[in-house]
Amino acid sequence: MTMYQPNSEQDLADLLRDADAPLAVQGGATRGVNIAGAPLSTCALNGVRLYEPGALTLVAGAGTPLPEVEVLLAAENQRLAFEPSDLRGLLGTDGIPTLGGAIATNTSGPRRIQSGAARDFLLGVRFVDGMGQIIKNGGRVMKNVTGYDLVKLMAGSHGTLGVLSEVSLKVLPSPECSGTLIWENLDWQASLAIFSAALNSPYDVTGAARLPAFGERPAQTLIRVEGFEASVSYRLSELSGHLKTIAQSAEMTMDVVRNAQLWRSVRDVEPFVGKEGDLWRSSIKPGNMPAFVAALDGEHMIDWAGGLIWSLVPKGRDVRAALNGFGGHCTLLRGAHHLLRFQPEPAPLAALSAGLRKKFDPRGILNVGLMG
User: Fold this and answer.
1) 139-176 per-position pLDDT tens digit
2) For residue 78, what is the domain's CATH number?
3) pTM of whole model > 0.90?
4) Contact between 177 and 228 (Cβ < 8 Å)
């Protein structure tokens, strides 16, 4: 099958205007999504067009590799605060994650509980809709809110409303130091209590997760804080004392390498890499986390203080059945190909989503069937 890879925004517009069959839109093709249609890659729409460290602003082509962006920002001691994940190991895919792919999927890592999601840092977009029209929306600073809702709409639309060609983002300074409190072998309820108490403390927590047992390593409940070294040390000590009423004393680490490894494991769901089974990602009310995982056979990794659950379950198991009564929604990341990737929406929301797709892609050629 022909792979389309336009070299410019105008080439992309011409391609979409003349298309007469479905297209499978992709960035770095790292997420293992199988959609009917000829592949359309944005990888050639790459390169940083504007970077102003003083203004905390970055503008880049949608196909720009994420590692390239992260190296550029690190040279100025800055970062993408939404901590985008790299799921290639988890999903067994090749390619390189792209900036546009991270935005199109609204990829947001452990820091979401403090900094927000990818869409919260999106200032502006350029994209081509299903009719081949080039659309620019938003701006390069937060004050410019022209078309702000449309900018947010593109984040998480998974290429069903249009193909991103350029994104404008707010970036943030990197912290001087990161530190983590670690508890071993806490059960689900105790972990939830730790999360709740930590997030309701004044110590500005930037990560709250639970890694399952892996090899010889026991299950670990993690709380992260970031900032200036003296402040991190003080806040970790205060938090540790504050949380002793819930669980035994925690181990405290401020080691740079170990902290990076711990939170990369959470961000990229490393405990499930190379393991057999179907992989699901569930978003629920944090307070329902212990009951949800208890009702579901399998292994679970917890992020976002209990609000995000990664589940590795036996092949063919429909996790959505276990979700009944808990609220929230599940996404199938790997396996069980007879099931829809995304959870069916309630009728009113489904009608709204279909209306949006009809408006932006009236011929129905962009990632057909992916989201409904």
Assistant:
1) 765 444 444 478 889 999 999 999 999 999 999 999 99
2) 3.30.465.10
3) yes
4) yes
